[in-house]
Amino acid sequence: MLNKTFAYRLEIMMFAVIAIIMILIGRMAYLQIYRGAYYDRQSEGNRTRYTTILAPRGIIYDSNGEELVNNKPGFMISLMRRGESYKPEVIERLSVILKIPESKIREIIDKSKDNYEPVRLMRNASPEIVTKIEENLRDLPGVMLEVQPVRNYVNKNLAVQTLGYVGEISEYEIDNGLYKGLKAGSIIGKFGLERFYDNFLRGTDGSYREEVDVNGRVVKIMDKVDPKPGHGLVLTIDAKMQRVAEAAVDKQLQSLGARACAVVAMDPYTGEIKALVSRPDFDPNWFVNGISEKHWQAINNDSFDPMTDKAIAGQYPPGSTFKIVTGSAALEEKKVTPEELIFDSGRHKLIDMRNANGEALGWIDFKKALSASDNVYFYEMGNRLGIDLLDKYAAKFGFGAKTGIDLDGEADGLIANPKYKMKVFDEDWFLGDTFNAAIGQGFNLATPIQVATMLSAVATDGKRFEPHLVKKILNDDGSVFKTFKPKLLGSLPVSRENLTLIQDGLKAVTQEGGTAADLGTLPVSVAGKTGTAENPHGRDHGWFIAYAPADKPTLVVICIVEQGGYGSVASVPIVKSILEYAFGQSTQKQGG
Amino acid sequence: MLDKKIVNNLDYVLLFGVFLLTGIGIMLIGSATHANVDSPNRYYYVFRQALFAFVNICIGYYLLHFDYRMLKDLAKPMYVLNIIMLLAVMFFGRTVLGAQRWIQLGPFSIQPSEFAKAIMIIALAAYVDKRVNTLDNLRGWIPVFAYVFVPFILVMKQPDLGTSLVFLAILLGIMIICGFKKKYFLAMGFGVLAAAPLLWGVLHEYQRNRIRVFLDPGLEPYGSGYHVIQSMIAIGSGLLTGKGLFAGTQSQLNFLPENHTDFIFAVAGEEFGFIGVTIILLLYLLIIYRGFSIAMNATDNFGCLLATGIVAMFTFHVLVNVGMTSGIMPVTGVPLPFMSYGVSSLTTNMLMITLLLNIDLHPQRLRFH
Fold it and tell me: Which residue of A3, A30, A35 to mutate against B (max B Cβ within 10 Å)?
């Protein structure tokens, strides 16, 4: 008998079986106790899908309530987070449909490795792509179509430098902690008001956690946090005036063969900007889904730099518009009386510096000198004032410092002085430099917004208000969250009497014989000043600055056309169009 | 109607283990096939498994009236029938999941390879029983090896690596009990190692893949590695006490494939936790222990050989199935006895338990009796 004689053989087998069962129990202990937490997370990761619901950004309205920037539903194509890797054939198919190289898709997946959220591959996919994805969803396990708000710039290029655009947060911005609590893939304002008011506009993303089965079907929603939409903005911008201004600019640029221009229209008593134009421009919608190479090249290779808002960051010699400052200083410091006649022989008696066109006006008083923009007269004013006094007044008028407009990237401009010249050019300061400064040429630089603020201060009899673009911040229910009141920056150190003299001189500019007599036909009287900024690199830049009605100003409009030639030729027609929009058509045009 | 002599002498410890495991199995099949979710046919699998458990218990009880020694005479015809059945599968079988394992008989699809295991045990025990005195040298074993080799190859061809390896496990048990020499074991072990590349060539591509993936489950997390990874996640996430019956997310949300058949143990791990699976494994140990005990007390070599073969079969199934669901064995289609859904498998296992009870109930009658 086998079992009786060799019982130990069965016992050996029995011990082997006990050992096997113990090994299996040990394996269970390893999986369920030692590694339990890990597998528990894995199983949670399997069944839960965590999705961010993007908060719609605040809507941006113009001053009349027209939507300038809103959100539209866009299809986002994402990869579900399931396990660590995705099937290569899925990535291959996606690559073909989305027309994104496989390597790029893998890069995006790698970048968002630390997130538990779906990997976003494409925002605002085109209808053709959405259709293709939907048709092939069976062969694309793990691929999701999500509807999320996508930023929409309703009027495309309109006021692009002011409104700005949004884009994905950059690695640099994440690494440097510039935006707290934002993850890769978050959308932030990158430029313009979108950037300046990003904290208000952005809102807070919501999320939901869903239980899904192996096919990605939602079994139940585990919890949901609703997104908090961003605050809306009501701008001071009048979209209609903005359109008129841009149309006038584009027409004028075309006829001049020029490419760059800046326009500021503002309410002098509040600092509210009604229109702000910078050319060349671009379509902000290009940036919303990640800019294409073609569009980026178009922007990047443009020597006139569409990305610079010329109205706040363009720096130009103020040209003859600066004679307002020189004149005010001379009157206030009593270096000249309004009645004093100074002889213009066509050149200054001390240095051979002449009028622009070589003309000689003979004996002229202050008002005539200002309205005819006589250089010789103002050389003499510079001579009498000296550079230090001139600079002091320039600073009081707001030159050489940012105006404080609610946009990033504003330039300082420059008030030149002997120290500056020595430092930069290692040269002494000459009287000729003072002469140049007196008529706004030479070293001095001003931004259009500075010039607009300067003229506003004259229009308001001396009060200088901070220019701003946002009137109100709204809550998401439309109620007012915050209202911006006009902010007084300072008062001009110029007497009412002297300011009136300046104002009279500016009014004469648009009368018969003035440099902008063209504006005499408007239904309201206009005060203005032309200017030509000398440009050593090409044709001169043409300024025209104006306010109206001259007696009770409600609107300041200034314009500079880069390389547009004389201000009266280049900029006056643009300003005229805007004034016509604001105050009515010219009587002459209506008649004829 | 009940035979007192049978009822009084049954091994109730063994039966306790078997019934408990079958019961747990039916519950888990219910969980794995969403019997808790309202849908038509929600009880299909549960009902079938329970029904066949009952039918098999009845058949088993009936069979206890016969002396297992009758099987000695039936062994050869069964062996031949087995070969015919396996050939039938090759030619008329239904292909499921890349393997030809089923034949359709009326409303039943049966898996001859499951019954082949039972037949293998009986036929081999009878065959060895006759030659027990010639097995003291290697030459004596050659016919025995040949006897196993024929059905082994046929099952391997289906291809059903799991079942063919069960044959080897049964053979191994028989070899140990018959005192196959250690040096021969060693020699054969080296022989198998040396022939490994050759065996690799014999395997199907999907089988090779399973072995590759076993060595590195991350190789194809969505391919053949998927089963094992999801199964390990299921078991691991059960922690100490489990997620509760019907509450396993891996099984309920179908992350775990084939969860009512070969991967039922993963459902157990997920829903009952470490405590639950330890109890289940100890129940298997209990059954096997009773099997050894019956082998030990058998009154003839045939009974001892049968019991050893049965024990070897159960042990192999538990080791390979639990090992595969927990990621320490390659994936082979070996069901977990009594718990995996499957009529053929349940029937075979219950018949084997009946056979153990039968050996226990029918001691050798003395000659003078």
Answer: A3
Distance CA B327, CA B321 (A): 10
Q: Please write the tens of the pLDDT for every residue from B126-172.
A: 999 999 888 888 888 999 999 999 999 888 887 788 888 999 999 99
pLDDT band at A45 (very low <50, low <70, confident <90, very high): confident
Residue B328: which of A3, A10, A27 has the nearest Cβ? Answer: A27
- Give the pLDDT score at B218: 67
Residue A14, min C-alpha distance to chain B (Å): 7
Chain B partners within 8 Å of A87 (Cβ): 222
How far from the centroid of its chain's Cα atoms is residue B97's Cα?
19
Average pLDDT, rounded, for chain A: 88
The reported pTM is 0.69
Question: How far are the Cα atoms of A274, A307, A341, A446 from residue A311, in angstroms, in the given order?
Answer: 13, 12, 37, 10
Q: Which of B281, B270, B273 is nearest to B232 (CA)?
A: B270
Q: CA-to-CA distance for A87 and A102, rounded, in angstroms?
A: 12
Distance CA A567, CA A560 (A): 8
Residues 1-20 of chain A whose Cβ lies under 8 A from any Cβ of chain B: 1-3, 6-7, 9-10, 12-14, 17-18, 20
- DSSP per-residue codes, A90-111: HHHHHHHHHT--HHHHHHHHHH
From CA A537, how far away is CA A198, in angstroms rounded?
A: 38
What's the gap between Cα A178 and its chain centre?
Answer: 19
Q: How many CB pairs under 8 A join A and B?
A: 148
Q: Which domains does chain A show, CATH number per domain?
A: 53-235 (3.90.1310.10), 239-299+308-591 (3.40.710.10)
Hey, what are A203's tokens?
A: 């809102």
User: Does residue A433 carry a pLDDT above 70?
Assistant: yes
Is the CB of residue A471 less than 8 Å from the CB of residue A272? yes
CB A70 within 8 A of CB A154: yes
